[in-house]
Write a structure and sequence with these properties.
70 residues, mainly alpha, 2 domains, two-stranded antiparallel sheet, 3 helices
Length: 70
């Protein structure tokens, strides 16, 4: 109807899912699960976890480091 290739739409939906905006649920479809602000925070968390892994830390280690500051 809009003249957009189906593969382009699917690729865009997958990117939005990977960024934390959408959730795909079999039998229920696609739903929005995060705001832009939440997605930005999740991106920072993912970056922090990647850095921690590079330095040999596990996610549980990072949680232990953050917990006293909450």
């Amino acid at each position: 109807m809009l003249g957009v290739n189906k593969n382009t739409v699917i690729r865009a939906l997958r990117i939005l899912r990977d960024e934390g905006f959408l959730d795909f649920t079999r039998g229920r479809g696609v739903r929005v699960v995060a705001t832009a602000e939440e997605s930005a925070v999740l991106a920072k968390v993912a970056e922090m976890l990647d850095d921690a892994r590079r330095f040999g830390h596990q996610p549980a280690d990072v949680i232990s480091m953050i917990q006293p500051r909450i």
